[in-house]
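task queued by scheduler; priority normal; single chain, no ligands, no partner chains; default sampling; output format set to structure tokens
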Amino acid sequence: MFFVFAALILGVCVLIFIYGEISGETVPRLSPCLNNGKKWRLGYIQGGTRHLYPRSLIALVDGLSKLGWLKPVDWTKFSKNIDTKQIWRFLSECVESDYLEFSRELYWDARRDRQQRSENRRHAIELLRGSERVDLIIAMGSWAGQDLAVSAHNVPVVAINSPNPVAAGILRADLVPALPHVYVGYEPDIVIRQVRIYQLICGFKRLGVVYDRSNPDENRGGLSYLRTVADQGDFELDVVEVTLRDVPQPLAKKHLLKAYRELAPRVDAMWITADMINQPAIAKELLAPFFEHKVPTWTTLGETAVRNGVMLSASRSEAIYGLNNARVVAKILNGTLPGDLIGEVHNKYEMVINHAVAQRIGFSIPVGLSAAIDKSYLSITKEHENVQRK
């Protein structure tokens, strides 16, 4: 009886920690409008490609469609590997909207190159300060947010997919906007909630994590959250530093694999942070040390990583995230200052598990965890057919 009760408690705790609430709307001005009789002209900037960026952009467009700003887009006719440049080109040429113009000329991608980043930033700010009309810029990721969250212009900026905007310097720690024309979403407790659930499920005493010293803006904040939980709990962190960003991918993979091989024999569980895990051909090799040493793995990178062989993740609902961002854009175009919309964001997260991984490492899934699982994978594969949904 005690074990049954404990299992139920575990399930309830997982549900409480994993799910964020969808914030209520108190500002009614979301309806489509024109800019003095003209369409609003939008631009886009990113520091480089990450697996979430195309999905987040599509979700934002779908959210704007639900709010009536443009006609719905049938994304099923596009490749699953579509990138943001292809998305933006389609939006600039084919989207049906009486209110929005997605300008093809207002797209910048630094491709993770620092020199290209500098050139893009200079060019973008020149346009934003010049005579050419730009009404709003979507800044995807920390680099883009940093580059345009500046006082050199006053065009509204909506910064999304910055894992820790405070650590990146996009947002002040007290959540008071330093710049009235910049909005950025902030989920300060999501890493803390996830690592606590991970410990509750696996009961580890030593958690491994790789820190990318070449990407401190996105990694330092996450590491600080892990240390906060470790200091409050009864486990220790085992951190290995590597360089992943400023080197060719084959060398970055070599660095990461070496770190994983070093950590796997000495940790009870692993916290996966490297975006390379979302590439199926690479993931199999990278995760091999953890399979060999029977180490459970968790990532904040979402469902694709679990499909590729990570055991557990809390995957963000892109549809809700996109709708939340679309509401922000709609409010700004209706006259609200971006800085007035800044606050903690609570998105919905889905618990995802790969049973094949659990079986492979001999990990017994707690009975109470089943109540919190939204999606299960039955094998390690890149295909979608082996998924079971609630």
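post-processing summary
- Confidence is low (pLDDT under 50) at residues 1-5, 15-28, 383-387.
- The chain has two domains: 10-16+189-315+349-389, 29-186+317-341.
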